[in-house]
Specification:
The structure is a single chain. With about 240 residues, this protein is mostly helical. It has a domain of about 160 residues. It contains 10 helices and no strands. Helix 2 runs parallel beside helix 10. The protein is elongated, with a radius of gyration of 24 Å.
Amino acid sequence: MASRASKQRIMEHIPNGRFFASEFKNFVLGGQDGVVNVFGLVMGVAAGTNDTKSILIAGMACAVAESISMAAVAYTSTKTAKRYYDSERERELRYIRDEPQVERREVRDIYERKGFRGPLLSSIVRHITSDKRLWADTMMADELQLSKTGVENPGRSALIVGTAALFGSLIPVIPFFLLTPSEALLPVAVICTTVLFAAGALGAKITVGKWWKNGLEMAGIGMAAAITGYLIGWWLGVTL
């Protein structure tokens, strides 16, 4: 597991590090999905047809469709999460307006469980409950365990996921523009596996986990898709 200090150093060298960390999962989601899906597809088409034109048509069509699909999924899922968060926050504001004593007691209970006592506890409760927006945010985070991070902007999530999916989808296709299908298979496998391993390792460095374990896990997913696609393509190419 990366140390707290090393993660802090990484974040210090990334512009607006908190924003980057909150959106990194969207970038990985889109990029990984694009690489893995098109990796498996082009390996299957290459094994079944050995025709560069067919591989490029299938790969490019899948890349575009994949990016649109992933962007749409990111948009709708983030929008749904935002609506749920907003509805729960409105309910908390309504409770604060209609039952302030009950809600104030809940704030006190929350901070008592965190270990605060006496005048300090009273001061914290008084400060939080003096601002209804802060009060509602506290209840959302500490009582309902709901975070606003990642649900603020569905359009931004869709853009990040869709763009990452498009770039990720193009990685397995590019070698087939330069090499024959038989020559491209090994470079495609090496490039895609390396990219997936690097993405997994970077994710562990920025968040949590062992970099090598996370990298191997992501690379293994890609290789499983590629091998499956290749075997299906080979079998269909022989039997059809």
